[in-house]
Amino acid sequence: MHNLIPRLNRFLGPRCNRDMCDAPQPPSIYHEKQRLQLCLLHALNNLYQREQVFTRHELDCIARKLPVELHNGGLHSYLVNSHYNILTGNYDANVLMKVLHTRGAEISFCNASVGANAIDLDDPKLIGFILNFQVRRFGLYTGRHWIAIRKIQNIWYNLDSEIPGPLSIGGNEQLRVFMSQLQHGTEVIRILRITE
Fold it and tell me: Which residue of the set 31, 39, 42, 83 is catalytic?
């Protein structure tokens, strides 16, 4: 029995001393990975930090209803849907605006060149940002990609579903630098909670 303790210590690694146990642990961050062209779905769930806050079924239903609302119906609305791809997703900003409205969120489009300089980054109602930018696939296809930016324990994170995991941007000043370096044509969408 006496020989068991040194073997357990080797197996378990260094024992926790008081300083190690009291050290702040990195936050647990929810991060969905990319599949198909569901980047808007992943960006929304990453922004809200929970699985299935939003579902593909919900986004598809909203996208199917949009053509009727925006184009007053007609054959064109049912045959061609510019708000999403029936097979892969690829949702547009109209779907984003509608689904966030169902969650009681307020959105505003920000000028990417101004970026975070004109925004109160410490506003308690600020949930985060959704960015939409152009991407080139295999040199042939040009599409758009959605990502979420969210502050967790005073650190801003890039929650892009195409990267392996959450990427720390840093504090407010680092976010301002990050936003100032966005490619031309990037749409920055600020998401706020509406107080009840």
Answer: 39
